[in-house]
């Protein structure tokens, strides 16, 4: 399950508590109208990521042959898992966001309380367990391991050179969750898991590109931050292009016109973005190219959804 890649957890006030374990004054908001608190809670879950990942995996489940009921179960499991991860991320980073004056963050600006977000995160995680297992023990275990990886990222791995690992595990296990929940419980093909893992690593690097300088100033030392802005910008399209290549050549059958076209476009983007990135340009081209490449990889994965359960 993909984690969320923003401010890093720390100790004391940076973890959202002071030395005595209390929530800092900046996070204690006055009484809120219920509607405003709900709106703040929704903003704290990282809605774009929640919607995008839930829609992607639900579409993949439909493409793999899951019926309407099965797709609803997949959507509910992924949605609750994503909500738990998003709320966990904002709760862990609440102190740092408040100290940095992040008025766009609901916890930092007082739109919702820290206790509310923490309870919502735990409640979503509790719902995620039975909803995941409803697709079968093996499928549920695959999904829950991905969710656990995302929580581990939020709670500390994001500060280390292994910051990419939870993304690789979370994205790599999503095709497994879908395949193992289908009739016959087939193991997912290696190419699907590999493509998911590569897509996750690319998503991690791409996601932190806009904030690398701020992260370094705040002491965030994940893999992209250790590489530095220039090398991270050049690296971002590489795992995404590799995911596209795996999705073109991995599934059974010929690559086809769509596959070759996807490789041509994403390969050209990878080469073109490496030049300005290596030169230290501050162009947004590497970031935008990585987004296009990621979108192409997602489209290829969904297009080959029926191959997830193929026994060939």
UniProtKB/TrEMBL annotation:
It comes from the Bacteria. One of its GO terms (cellular component) is membrane. The chain crosses the membrane at residues 112-133, 139-157, 164-184, 190-210, 231-251, 257-278, 285-303. GO terms for molecular function: transferase activity, transferring alkyl or aryl (other than methyl) groups. InterPro entries: UbiA_prenyltransferase, UbiA_sf. It is a multi-pass membrane protein. The keyword Transferase applies. It is found in: Membrane. Keywords: Membrane, Transferase, Transmembrane, Transmembrane helix. This is 4-hydroxybenzoate polyprenyltransferase. It comes from Actinacidiphila rubida.
